[in-house]
Amino acid sequence: MWAGRVLHATLSRAPRGSRAQSALAQLRGILEEELESIRGAGTWKSERVITSCQGPHIHVEGAPGGIINFCANNYLGLSSHPEVIQAGLQTLKEFGAGLSSVRFICGTQSIHKDLEAKIARFHQREDAILYPSCFDANAGLFEALLTSEDAVLSDELNHASIIDGIRLCKAHKYRYRHLDMADLEAKLQEAQKHRLRLVATDGAFSMDGDIAPLQKICHLASQYGALVFVDESHATGFLGPTGRGTDELLGVMDQVTIINSTLGKALGGASGGYTTGPGALVSLLRQRARPYLFSNSLPPAAVGCASKALDLLMESNAIVQSMAAKTLRCGPGQGGARWGEGAGEGLLCVAAQAHNSLPLRPASAHLRVPSGLHWDLALLTRGYLLAPALFSLSVFSFHFLVHFMYFYFFYFLALLPVGS
User: Fold this and answer.
1) Terminal CA-to-CA distance of the chain, rounded, Å?
2) Which residue intervals of 257-362 are DSSP H helices?
3) Which residues pair with 389 in a beta bridge?
4) I want to staple 285 with a disulfide (CB 3.0 to 4.6 A). Which of 73, 107, 157, 289 is the partner?
5) Which one of 265, 308, 326, 403 is the catalytic residue?
6) 20: part of which helix (H) or strand (E)?
7) How far is it, in rounded angstroms, from Cα 287 to Cα 37?
8) What does pTM read for this prediction?
9) Closest to 353 measured CA to CA, from 231, 246, 236, 201
C-alpha cells in the first residue's frame, strides 16, 4: 500500500512538472523574440564598465588609456569633490550603512530631517520629503495628490518617470504638444470643469536641451486657476544665478507650486530624490506616497554627500558662476571653441540663454563615423565617451544627437580652470 501511494504521487506530479517545463520554454521563446526585436531595431543598450571614479576623465574596460567622458549628469563635478566624499565617509561612520527600515517605522535619522530642511531652504519652499530617487518622487506625487475630480496637463516630451507617475493617478489626463503654449491654453480651457488642474513639465528637457517656457506656463496657470509642477532633475544645482533651477533662471520661483528633483546628478551624484513645496502637501505625501511609505530610507552616506553638496552651493555661488563662465567661453563670439577637430568630429558649444532653448549645434554637416559603427564606438576609439548607442545612425538623427549632448557637456566644463 505504501509503495502504491508513492507511485501514485510520483505519477501525479509528472504532468505538473512537464507543464512547468513547457511554460518555462514558452517564456524563454517569448523573451528571446523580444530581445531579438530590440537588437533588430538598433535600440540595444550596452553598458560601459568604468574602472575609475566618475569624472571628466575616466578609465573604461576595453579602451586603452584615459577617456574624456561626456556621458554623466555630474554637471558640477561634485561626485568626486573631496569635501563631498569626506562628508559621505564621516556620515557612514556616524550613522551606519543603512536603516533596514522605511521612514515611518524606524528609518528616520536626524540627518534625513536636516537634509529635507536644507532642500526646502535651497528652493525657498515650506518643506521637503526625501525618496530613494526622483523616479520614486514622481511615482509618489500624482497618485497621492490627484483624484478622479482633478486634471493633470503634461508636456508630451516629459520624462518617463513623470509619464509613469501620471499613469498611476486617477485624474483626467491631458497631453499638450511640446512647449506649445497655445495647445496648453486650449487644454486648460477644456479642463476648467475639474476641481484641481496641475500643469506638469520638465524644467530642462534632457533629451532635447529645451528649457520649459515657465513664465508663459505660470501666466496661463494663473489665468486658468491651475497649479504648476516642475521636474528640475536636469536643472537643480547649475541653472539660475545661484543654481536653484529653471524657476530661478526665469524669475518664477514664487509661481511654481511643486518641485521634484534629484540628488543623483549635480548634487553629489550618489542617489536620492525629493519633492519640495507647500507644507501640507509634504505632510500628505508622508501619509500616502507609496514609494515613500514602502521603500527603505535613503542610506546615510548618500544623505551626507548630498548635504555637503548643498552646503557648497549655498555657501557661495562660485561653483555655479564658474561653470557658467566656462560655458560662455565656448559660445558664439567667444572663439567658436571646438573639440575633436583633429579626428573630424567638430561640435560648437553655445552659451546658455535664459530666453531660448539650449542645444549644441553641429559645426559640421555630418558626424564622420566609419560605415557600420555606432557613433559612440567610433569616438571611444579616439578617447571620447558619449552616451551609449541607443540607435544606429540610420534612425538616430544627428540633430537629435547634438541636442542630447548639451547637458552632458556641463560637468566636463565645470572642472576646467576659468583662466585657462
Assistant:
1) 91
2) 279-288, 290-293, 300-315, 318-329
3) none
4) 289
5) 265
6) helix 2-40
7) 42
8) 0.79
9) 246
Contact 217, 228 (CB under 8 A): yes
Whose CA is closest to 351, among 180, 211, 163, 255? 211
Our CA angle for 230, 124, 206, nearest 5°, is: 30
Compute and round to an integer the Cα radius of gyration of the chain.
25
Q: What is the rounded CA–CA span in Å between residue 359 and residue 408?
A: 11
Report how far residue 51's alpha carbon sits from residue 225's, in angstroms, rounded to the nearest whole number: 52
Question: Residue 202 pairs with which residues in a beta bridge?
Answer: 231
Return the residue matching grid coordinates 511654481.
Answer: 256
Q: Is 206 designated active site?
A: yes
The grid coordinates of residue 241 equal: 544665478
- Buried b or exposed e, range 194-213, using 16+ CB within 10 angstroms: bebbbbbbbbbbbebbbbbb
Residue 264's CB is within 10 A of a number of other CB atoms, namely 22
Assign 269 to helix, strand or coil. coil
Q: What is the pLDDT of residues 130-153, one digit of tens each?
A: 999 999 999 999 999 999 999 999
pLDDT at 263 over 90: yes
Predicted confidence at residue 275, as pLDDT, reads 98
**Is residue 265 among the annotated active site residues?**
yes
Tell me what percent of the residues of the chain surpass a pLDDT of 70. Answer: 74
Strands 67-69 and 384-385 turn out to be parallel
Q: Is 307 a catalytic residue?
A: no
Closest Cα to residue 314, out of 124, 132, 133?
Answer: 124
Residue 242, SS3 per DSSP = coil
Neighbours of 243 (CB within 10 A): 27
180: which residues sit within 8 A by CB, 6+ positions away?
none
8 Å CB contact between 384 and 68: yes
pLDDT at 120 over 80: yes
Catalytic residue among 133, 154, 161, 206: 206
**Cβ proximity of 350 and 360 under 8 Å:** yes
Phi and psi (nearest 5°) for 308? -70, -40
Q: What angle do CA 33, 39, 42 make, to 5 degrees?
A: 145
Q: Which of 112, 159, 187, 234 is catalytic?
A: 234
Of 116, 47, 51, give the one whose Cα is nearest residue 272.
Answer: 116
Distance separating alpha carbons of residues 252 and 198, to the nearest angstrom: 16
231 burial via Cβ count (<10 Å: 0-12, 13-18, 19+): buried
